[in-house]
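Notebook entry, structure prediction.
Reason for the run: the old model in the group folder had no record of what sequence produced it. Starting over properly, with the input documented here first.
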Amino acid sequence: MCHKLLLNGDGIFCGNFSSKRGLWIACHQAWCGGCYTPTDLNEFPVAKPVDDSGFDISDDTDTLRYLVGRDGDSLVTPFQCDLCHFRNLTGRDPQVNLAEDIRLLKFIRRANLDAFWAIEPPTVSKTLTECRRGLRIARSFGFGQTLFRPPGPFPLSDTFGMGGAIVMLDISLNKGQLASTVQFGTIRRFRSAYGNAYHATAEGQRAVVMAKDTRKLVVTECASYGAFFEKFVKGCHKRMGEITKPDKALSIEILLEIMS
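New structure, fully documented this time:
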């Protein structure tokens, strides 16, 4: 961290900032956008944009994609810091001498960054600019403290679905057939399994069903359909990319043989 003083909306703030949860003191985790970076030493691959011929079409603006946060990310994506997520998942603080704890923190950081990058930089920047303008106007009228709702605190449990996100990230490191690691289509299967398992529980049965004629809409509290998880899935897919190998066309000679 650079220890810079964050003012006027700069930086990325944990949604539990200044809030006490459970037995722990209030969280005070915040970063400059550029200071929130992966801790996995490039363990997770980042796909480069290519054209139909396979040529790299990335430019200088793509070098930091998925590798750094942006000021204002926590205004457009639900965010809890690595430590808060660790506590949500395990009910304790991480131990620096436990490899599994360090690995879990690395995966949490990667999941948060993937969720951030579901939103493109111009949208994040414009949101931050508009929020600053709105706050400035609200302060001039004397209601700056009540214009925006506080981001948290969030419950001391995994309401984001971070556990499911970590499982998907771990699967993403498995050896693939078309590339060094598996494709996104392989890891997204767990999301379906995660949702199916949830809706088979007593808690999942409390989902509200709205029906009209033959149409049905289910309102669920399953974390894999929440705002954070939706952004994580989108950002993870963008980072991993997709390699497709369509079937080759049949020659005329083979088609004639088939038809004969």
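Summary: The helical segments are 73-76, 82-90, 99-116, 121-141, 162-172, 184-199, 227-240, 252-259.
The old model has been moved to the deprecated folder.
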